[in-house]
Amino acid sequence: MMSYDYWRPALAAILLGVLYPLYWVLELSFDGGFPPEDFSAYIEWSSLDWLFLFLGGLNVYVYLSLRRILSEQLNYSGIDIPILIMVVICIVFYVGLSFLQIALHLVVGDSVADYEEIALTIGVVVLVGSVVLGGVSEILIACLLLRDSGTMPPLVRIFAIITLIMGIFDLTLIFSFISLFIFPVSMLVLAMYFMSKPEMIEIV
Predict the structure, then answer these.
(1) CA count, 13 A, side-chain hemisphere, 53
(2) Cα dihedral across residues 175, 125, 115, 95: positive or negative
(3) What phi and psi, each to the nearest 5 degrees, are found at residue 32?
(4) Which of 203, 198, 201, 183 is nearest to 153 (CA)?
(5) Phi then psi for 76, rounded to 5 degrees?
């Protein structure tokens, strides 16, 4: 009998699906894209930066919750490694970029222009690396789930298909922005799975 209640992961998935595209729309609207035109203003901490960190925490929580529900309800551990890779990627991306921003603001101060090039280089490397490695992990997660689709609930199979499409777009880099529209759908499907009752096998 399961004692863990999955309404919290469901709520986290819904929040992530809503806030993730909203954040990037606001970020690109306010800063004018990447790299920023005014780098000194870019490193100033704002409410959007708190939202950025919050999204990172939600990502980690949702992925670990997916790993847990598959283990508890289906006794399935086939995607443990790619999920843990995704967790590491999220930590490096969200926490790493935030730490870089804070370090530049506190340590560099008024001479931030002297470090602009190296900071932008690090930011681009982290961004591109996270997108590519995240795409590889998404494809791996999707392929493993689809390989074992016979033992998976329909919502997990749907999530796997959406994740596969998202991973392919992320790998292209050029079309990775399409994931902004696909990601909320995958989170909604995942939220529905978290809220669904586990399939029980009756023994006569």
Answers:
(1) 12
(2) positive
(3) 75, 15
(4) 198
(5) -115, 130
pLDDT in tens, 118-154: 777 888 899 899 999 999 999 999 999 999 988 899 9
Strand blocks (E) in the chain: none
Phi-psi category of 75—alpha, beta or left, where left has phi over 0 and alpha has psi -120 to 50?
left
Residues 6+ apart with CB under 8 A from 27: 48, 52
Cα–Cα distance for residue pair 47/175, rounded to 1 Å: 28
* Region of residue 28 (left: phi > 0; alpha: psi -120 to 50; beta: else): alpha
Average pLDDT rounded to a whole number, residues 152-162: 95
Q: How many CA atoms lie within 13 A of 2 on its CB side?
A: 17
Three-state DSSP class for 153? coil
